[in-house]
Design brief:
The chain is an alpha/beta fold. The chain is 55% helix and 12% strand. The chain is built from twelve helices and seven strands. Strand 2, helix 3 and strand 3 form a beta-alpha-beta unit. The chain is elongated. The protein starts with a helix and ends with a helix. 36% of the residues are buried.
Length: 322
């Protein structure tokens, strides 16, 4: 080897080994005294280098004391609702990888390293733990609703997830810091999934065992109340992200109503040259005007939505990958 090459090799700075990613485990909790300590210890054993945060959401029991005893970093969010807690967590905490789970002992901490490894190895933005096992069979109403919402999301926003309501997932720093959350409650999982589908981010799923809650712990999810909220969230997100289709469907429905109302009037006019049903004719014309207005609104809002999508994409690209 020539002396010049040797000199270049000596002058070249030594390559630094990549620092391990900073991992934050995020546990939103509301009255989880019975399980939170064991959850914290489980994630501490599975991820020894991670920082484990418990965000208490106005618990009336000893959730905070149990979390502190187990070694978690405890913070509080006064605004009630899981969506409010997740918004606060993602805004306040600095990390390279964010693992979100629940404090009710239903998710297996031993799966956490696999979820994180999949995220980092494949440079993904989200990995969702799809739930399997006895926990999914315990409340059949929840399982049926989950299947219905998964089908709706697939039809409206495209395929990508088979368990959008799973609370066990890993997201990248890029995703966490560019996610414009607006949800207040359990709709947050739906919003996370739709955001990833809207920006066409790299995502994956891994099946994970989903267990039952401890006997002295109760679920905070209401089948009907929260189900209706999730349904409303899906509709509002479809309006915001797919406005031309949303308003186009409304316009088409109004146009069909207008044609149905106008058909007898037009038929009478062609036969007799008279328009004896003026109220019906006026109503049909008014409904058709609403149909046209709806279509125009769809065109305008679609342009606005595309601009917002580009802004979110640019914000996402500004952030460095872990």
């Amino acid at each position: 080897m020539s002396p010049a090459v040797e000199m270049l090799r000596e002058d070249r700075p030594a390559r630094r080994e990549a620092a391990p990613p900073r991992i934050a485990v995020l546990l939103p909790c509301y009255n989880e005294e019975a399980a939170v300590a064991e959850v914290v210890r489980g994630f501490r054993a599975a991820l020894p280098t991670a920082e484990i945060y418990v965000y208490d959401n106005n618990s009336a029991d000893r959730t905070i004391e149990r979390a502190l005893e187990a070694g978690a970093i405890v913070r509080r969010e006064r605004r009630q609702g899981k969506g409010n807690v997740v918004r606060r967590m993602l805004a306040d905490i600095e990390a390279d990888v964010y693992l979100m789970a629940d404090g009710d002992l239903t998710y297996d901490p031993l799966a956490a390293p696999l979820l994180i490894e999949r995220l980092l190895a494949h440079q993904l933005d989200m990995v969702v733990a799809t739930r399997e096992g006895e926990g999914m069979l315990a409340r059949k109403g929840h399982a049926a609703g989950n299947r219905m919402f998964n089908g709706m999301i697939k039809r409206l926003f495209g395929a990508g997830f088979t368990d959008i309501l799973s609370g066990y997932r890993v997201v990248s720093r890029r995703f966490a810091k560019s996610f414009p959350t607006a949800s207040h409650g359990f709709e947050i999982e739906t919003e996370l999934a739709v955001h990833a589908l809207d920006l066409r981010l790299a995502v994956d799923e891994i099946p994970v065992r989903y267990g039952k809650r401890p006997e002295n712990s109760t679920s905070k999810l209401s089948t009907w109340r929260d189900g209706l909220r999730i349904l409303w969230t899906i509709a509002m997100m479809y309006r915001a992200l797919k406005p031309f289709k949303f308003f186009g469907v409304i316009g088409a429905a109004l146009a069909l109503v207008s044609v149905a109302l106008a058909a007898p009037v037009v038929e009478t006019y062609l036969e007799t040259g008279l328009v004896p049903r003026f109220p019906t004719a006026i109503l049909a014309a008014s409904v058709m005007q609403l149909a046209v207005l709806s279509l125009v609104c769809g065109v305008i809002v679609e342009a606005i939505a595309e601009g917002r999508r580009e802004a979110k994409r640019l914000r996402y690209l500004e952030l460095k990958r872990a």
